[in-house]
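It would be a great kindness if you could assist me with a short task in structural biology. The matter concerns a single protein, recorded as an amino acid sequence and a row of backbone structure tokens. The record follows directly beneath this note:
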Amino acid sequence: MNIFINQETRQLPEGATLADALQAWDAPAVFAAAVNLQFVPRTAYAQHRLAEGDRIEIIAPITGG
């Protein structure tokens, strides 16, 4: 199935979870994730099943001041 991670198309097997997608994308050490604009808690990544066309946004914190 095709999904989008930060507007990049990725192909994953049917039944893939958010955790699978993040591993394939090599996400940064500290980040937040949303699927179809809905925040997903880190504790739910392995249970959150993805569907064709889902859009995942990986958001890394920005520091400064």
User: Anything to note?
Assistant: DSSP finds one helix and five strands in the chain. The mean pLDDT is 92.
